[in-house]
Amino acid sequence: MLFCRLLPTVFLLLSASVLTPALSAQGAQAAEARSSEPHQDQADSQHGHVDSGAFLTAVVATHNGDDLDAARAFRAAAAADPSNKDLVKQAFVRSVMAGDPEAVPLAKINAALPGGQTIISSLVLGNDAAVRGDWPAASRYYQQAGADPMAHLIMPMLQAWCHQAQGHADEAIAALTHIQGSVLVPFYTLHAALIAQVAQKKAQAGDLFAQSARLMPGYDLLLTRSYAAWYWEQGEQTKARTLLRSMLEADPVLALAGTQLQASISHVPVSSSQQGLARAYVLTAFLLRQQSLQQARQNAAGQESRHMPDDHQFDEASRLMLGFALGLDPHLAEARLMLAEIQDDEGHQAAARETLLRIPQTDPLAPVAAFRLALADSVTGHLDEARDKLTRLAQASPNLVLPVRALGNTLSAQKDWKGAIAAYTQAIALAGPKKTVDWSLLFLRAMAYHEVGDWAHAKADLKAALALSPDEPMLLNSLGYSMAERKEDLPEAEKLLRRAVMLAPQDAAIRDSLGWVRVEQGDLKEGIMLLEQAAEQTPEDPEVNYHLGEAYWRAGRHSEAVDQWNVALGLKPEPGDEALIRAALARAAAGGDKKAEQIQHASPPKVEVPADQSGGKHTP
C-alpha cells in the first residue's frame, strides 16, 4: 500500500521538524539563567548561550501555528548561537513551512553541518535553483533526495518538470507515462498531460487528459480545470462547461466557487514548470494529509500503534510539503486551503484565518476561502462576521444548500431562533428536489423550533428525521426524552429510548433519558439504577444530577436528593435547568428541609425560564 511506503519518509521529515523536549528544556534553562543575570554581556551569547527571549518567542509561535513568526524567532536565536545545530535546524524547518525565502541560505548552512544534508535541504536548494531558472542544478539537487521513499514517489514529476523547462518535453512525458504499477500512475499521467499542455502539444495533451480521467478515482480539481481549459481551446465549449459542472455537482464546497470557476474556464492552471513543481508538492501534502486523517480515525477508535507516527506528525510533514509548494507558487490557493485546514484541526484558528486571508479575492477559489473564514469566525465567537459572510455567500449562490445551512447554524449560535428556522427551511427546500435532505438538517430545525416553544413542529421534524435515519441514537434520544419531559405517551418514549440504549450502550445522556422515563413511569428502582450509572459516567452534568436528585426525592431519600441538587446547582446549569433545580430546592425547603433552605438563601435565584425553552442536552 502507498501509505506504508510513506512511513519511513515521515519519520525522516519529522526528525527535523518536531520541537524536541530536550530543546524546550534547554530554552527554559536559558530563560532562567537570563532572568537571574539581567546584565549579561551580549558577547556571551556567541559562546553557547541561547537567546532566551527569541527562543521562547519561537516556541510560543510554533505552539500557535504561526510558522513565519516562529521562523524569524528561531533565526534570531540561531544567530545568537550559530554553533547550536538544533536551533539552526528549527530555524530552517520553520522557514520552509512558512514558504520563506530565508530557507535557502539556511539550507546551505544546514547542509554544511555534520549530517545536515537531508531530503529537506536538497529539496529547498532544488526549488531555489528552479526559481532562478537553473534547471540542471535543480535536477541535481532533486536527484540527491531521490533515495528517500517519499521523494522517490514524487521524483518522476520533479525531474519531468526539470526536463520540460530545458526543452525536453517528449523525454519528460515518456518518463512519466512509462511508469507502471504505482498508485500514483493517475497523477503521473496528469502531469504528463500538463507538460504536453505547457509545451503546446495539444493533441497529445488531450489524449493524456482523457487517460488520466479514466484512471483518476473521482473528480480531481486540477485535472478537471486543466481538461476543461483544453476543451475550451479546442472550441468545444459545451464539453468544457459540462465537465466542470459535473465536478461542481459532486462537491458542495467547490460549488460555492462555481460562478468563478466557470468564468475562468479558459484559464490554464499550470502554465510553467515552476507551477508544475508546486503542484507535485501539493499532491504529496495531500497524501500525507489523508494518512493523518486515517490515523486520527484509528486513534479515536482506540487503534493506536507505537510504530506509527501520530496524526500531528503526518500533518507536520504535510505542512512542509505545502511550504515547498508556496515557496514556488505563493498564490496557489489549493495549498493555502489545505494549510488552513491543517491549522484549524490543530486548534490554530488565528493562523488559519491569516492563511485564508492571503488568498486573493480575484482567485476563483476565493468563495471557498470565504466560507472557511466564516466557519472560523463562528468557532472563535465572531458570529456577526460569520453571519455577514454567509449571508453574502447565500445571496451569491441562491441554489446551494451549504451556505444557507451554515447560516442557520450561525443564527442558532446567536440564539436568533426564528432566523435559524427560516434558514433551515430554505435549506430543506433547496435540498428537497435534489433528494439530498439528511436527518441532521431536520434535527437542526427541530432544535430551533423547540427553542421557540413550537413542540408540534419540532416533533414533526424529529419524526421525519427518524424516517430517514431510524437507527440514529441522537434522534431516538431527542424525541424520546422530549416526550418524557411532557409526559406524552411514556410507553412510546420508553420504546424509543431503549432502542437508543441498545444502539449506543455507553452514552450517558441516553442512559439518563431512559432512567428519567422510568422514574416518570413510577419504576424508581430501575430509574435510580440508570440515573446513578449516568451520574457516575458524567459527574459534572447538572441535568443528570438534577434527575437523580428528583428520583431520590420520590423514593423518600430526601437528604440525598437535596445533596444531589446542591451539586447540580454548583455545576453552572443552563437557565432552564437552574430554574428546575431551584424549584426543587424550594419545594424541599417548604417541606421543612433545613439544608435546602440554607442552599436557597446562599445565592439569589435567577429569573425563571419557561419549561418549553429549557433546552438541555437531551432535547432537540
From TrEMBL:
Which stretches are TPR repeats? Answer: 542-575
The UniProt regions of compositional bias labelled Basic and acidic residues, in chain numbering, are 34-48
Q: Which residues form the signal peptide?
A: 1-30
Q: Any idea which UniProt keywords this protein has? A: Repeat, Signal, TPR repeat
Q: Which Pfam families match?
A: TPR_16, TPR_7
Q: Return the InterPro entries for the record.
A: TPR-like_helical_dom_sf, TPR_rpt, Ycf3
Name of this protein: TPR domain protein
Which organism is this entry from?
Acetobacter tropicalis
Q: What is the lineage of its organism?
A: Bacteria, Pseudomonadati, Pseudomonadota, Alphaproteobacteria, Acetobacterales
